[in-house]
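Redox-sensing transcriptional repressor Rex
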Amino acid sequence: MVIHPTNGAVRAVPPATVARLPGYLRALDALAAEDVVTTSSDELAVRAGVSPAQLRKDLSFLGSYGRRGVGYDVAHLSEQVGVALGLATQRRVVIVGIGNLGHALANYSGFADRGFAVVALVDASPAVVGTTVAGLVVEPLDQLADIVTSRDVSIGVIATPAAGAQDVCDALVQAGVAGILTFAPRALRVPEHVDLRAVDVASELQILAFHDARRTATGA
């Protein structure tokens, strides 16, 4: 479900369309950086890596059809996509697990550019708790529930080793977090009302290795 950017109505949008919206927003941001005011569906589709027909179909769910002979207004369409993705309201984020990956995520400037504010860093290790990363003091895991409540956290990022990831996930859910992004290389279980997104870099590399091996075997 997304909020219709023009009239505030809630519309059902296919998950596959939602998954492509960040790509459209990224392409629109690139066009805006080049001082492009209007763009065609063909140009935007090429930049987003989809077909023009797919792009037009996806944007129709947002009530955006472009203008014949003119195309899409870049700034207006960017605003529409941002609203549809829920980026009009800043989302507060806690990162759990401040190892190498956690450090990198905490220092990633792209969160702020997309309307996300990292408001807390949490770790279970006494050696890490109390250190400062990206301007934030790392806090102990046993304070996670209080952190989520007092700072209005709505999204949790899990950057822990696989062994402790489910416990961290359970703690986030119990604290009231309904959106979780995990980088832990294992499957996690969440209740139906919680949205879980997983980024498994090793698995993606293995898939690339599979295709590379196939190309090598066939001489392609």
